Amino acid sequence: MILPNAALTNTFGLQVRAKQFVQAHSLDSLRTALVEAQRSNLPLLILGGGSNFLFVAPQLDAFVIQPALTGIRYTAIADNDVLVTAGAGEVWHQLVLASLEQGLCGLENLALIPGSVGAAPIQNIGAYGVELADCLVSVQAMEIASGNLRHFHKTELQLGYRDSVFKRALKDQYLITEITLLLHRQAPLKTDYDSLAKELAKQAAAPTSAQPKSGLTARQVADAVMAVRRARLPDPAVLGNAGSFFKNPVVSNATANALLQRYPAMPHYPQPDGSVKLAAGWLIEQAGMKGIRRGQAGTHESQALVIVNLGAATGADLLAVAREVRDTVQQQFGVTLEPEVWIIGATL
Ligand SMILES: Cc1cc2nc3c(=O)[nH]c(=O)nc-3n(C[C@H](O)[C@H](O)[C@H](O)COP(=O)(O)OP(=O)(O)OC[C@H]3O[C@@H](n4cnc5c(N)ncnc54)[C@H](O)[C@@H]3O)c2cc1C
């Protein structure tokens, strides 16, 4: 059913009304919705959980489709290997918990990332040293122009840091309907990410009766990841935000070296192709933009990379803060920050 002038929510806590809105629970209803969208002559917007959007205006002149296909299937393909297929409308964190319940590991570091399963491949979600690409096998997607289904093997998706083919060559061409992951009953756990390792060491020093005496479990890693996230990141239910607003910039080796002459303590991560990734949060903090307040909008006091709605900010207020942050970092470091968040209704 198409809802006109539908009220939509997103994690920034902005009130938005979409001209047309459809929640599609099956492949057939998705196809019908795509035909209706074409007929409407409105721009199409695919909405997952709304945790990576900044809607600048309160009126969204778009035909919004929210894929709500659910279901999780587990297929054992070897003693240790299980394929997990999940519908695009499943909540990502619920998939993580359900897989842990099945005794599977692989998703524990990605616990508590907000949003839907269908959005996860779009920016190749990642956290605490793991990204979706580490366990993704394939994606089923519907071509927006034809309604035809296509399977993409992971190797076709050009998955990179917060990046995929769906943000580039295939942008606005496909709607993801389900994903398939390869998880394991036993696999080495990835615990070397600094803040995660510290949290696990803290928990090991003060074990609870519920914890096994020896051997770390995937569930324990997930619990530690959740503890770190809850301590460090603002909860969108309390303080509106969309997680990291900017991507970590990747610069040439020469640029990084020139900056290191001026800022020897600057965190920098050499990449396999010779480029160097910088920490956007550090740049923002050094530029004096951590914890700034501009009316009801600002940056988080302990996570400079997170732009926050202090209560009654408008999309335009949040965009103004993002521009100020970007411009200040550009002036001080000559580095251009690119948004990770999808900005609708304006460009940064
Ligand atoms: C507090 C907080 C913490 C976060 N932490 C992390 C983190 O650690 N790591 C990380 O990677 N991200 C993080 N994010 C960002 C966010 O969780 C991810 O980008 C997530 O994948 C967005 O999911 P969503 O369903 O909310 O997508 P939406 O915000 O609704 O959409 C995001 C993009 O995906 C597209 N899209 C959505 N569903 C589909 C579909 N089925 N088919 C095709 N396109 C689709 C949309 O059109 C849009 O372009 C965080 C966000 C918040 C609020």
Describe this protein's structure.
The chain has helices at residues 27-40, 92-101, 194-205, 218-232, 253-262, 280-286, 315-333, and strands at 3-8, 16-24, 44-46, 53-55, 59-67, 72-76, 81-87, 126-127, 130-131, 136-143, 149-153, 174-184, 240-244, 250-251, 268-270, 276-278, 293-294, 297-299, 306-309, 342-344. By secondary structure, the chain is an alpha+beta fold. The chain folds into three domains: 3-67, Uridine Diphospho-n-acetylenolpyruvylglucosamine Reductase, domain 2 (2-Layer Sandwich), CATH 3.30.43.10; 70-232, Uridine Diphospho-n-acetylenolpyruvylglucosamine Reductase, domain 3 (2-Layer Sandwich); 240-344, UDP-N-acetylenolpyruvoylglucosamine reductase, C-terminal domain (Uridine Diphospho-n-acetylenolpyruvylglucosamine Reductase, domain 1, Alpha-Beta Complex), CATH 3.90.78. The strands form six sheets. A five-stranded antiparallel beta sheet has the order 6-7-12-10-11, with no helix packed on it. It has a four-stranded mixed beta sheet with strand order 1-2-5-3, with helices on one face. Helix 3 crosses helix 4 (218-232). The chain starts with a strand and ends with a strand. The mean pLDDT is 96. Bound molecules: flavin-adenine dinucleotide. Flavin-adenine dinucleotide is lined by residues 11, 46-53, 67, 88, 113-116, 118-120, 122-123, 125-127, 175-176, 233, 236, 241-243, 342.
